[in-house]
Design goal:
alpha+beta; Arc Repressor Mutant, subunit A; Umud Fragment, subunit A; 2 domains; 9-stranded mixed beta sheet; two-stranded antiparallel sheet
């Protein structure tokens, strides 16, 4: 638990890093908080470092946020809610708790309630790119559930007759087409009728391939 003065020092460091993408100097902290001398600033920093709120190096602007606060200040844990099939929608949709992935607040626009992650399976979208990255087998896809379908070239999470899949969507009269984007010739468009139950759970806005 930090005192109010210690919290003010920590908040000043965090705000400075978020604004300038570098850490403040002793002089900048002293001036910002109107502290009488540098030694008092050093004492605050020593306490914060001992409690793992920050790390300090020996070089200029060497203050770094500690693991204790990085996730809560710069990133938000977004839930991984299961799997989505990038193929034919044969896998029954079931929400599974697969843990969380820490996502930068700048990516999710500071609103964690609109987002979730899924782990992608199979290859029907392996030529589709988001932010220059491919949707691969075992990619993690970030879904904004606040997005509804639009007539565009985006990829969506679709629940078709209670089975989950990731596809581009086109509509014509009473039919809905689920469109693959793949170099695997096994995949072809899926034609759905107005009698099929189709629910769009959200739009894929990013993909992460660190585990692929």
């Amino acid at each position: 638990m930090l005192t109010s003065k210690q919290q003010r020092v920590l908040d000043t460091i965090i705000e400075f890093i978020e604004r300038h993408w570098e850490s403040p100097t002793l002089e900048e902290i002293q001036k910002s908080l109107d502290i009488n001398n540098k030694r008092s600033v050093v004492q605050f920093l020593e306490y914060l470092e001992n409690k793992w709120f920050i790390h300090r190096g020996r070089w200029y602007r060497s203050i770094r946020l500690g693991d204790r606060i990085v996730w809560s200040q710069l990133a938000i844990p977004i839930p991984i809610l299961g799997f989505a099939n990038a193929g034919k929608p044969f896998k029954y949709w079931e929400e599974i708790d697969l843990g969380n992935l820490l996502i930068s607040k700048s990516i999710i626009k500071w609103d964690k309630n609109n987002y979730f992650l899924l782990k992608l399976e199979w290859t029907s979208m392996n030529q589709f790119t988001i932010n220059g990255k491919l949707l691969k087998d075992w990619s993690y896809v970030l879904v904004n559930k606040d997005y509804k379908w639009q007539w565009d070239n985006s990829a969506y999470v679709c629940i078709v007759n209670w089975f989950a899949t990731v596809k581009k969507i086109k509509k014509e009269w009473t039919e809905t087409y689920l469109m693959p984007d793949s170099d695997d010739k096994e995949h072809s468009p899926i034609v759905l009728s107005q009698d099929d139950i189709v629910e769009i759970n959200g739009k894929i806005i990013d993909v992460f391939n660190f585990g692929v």
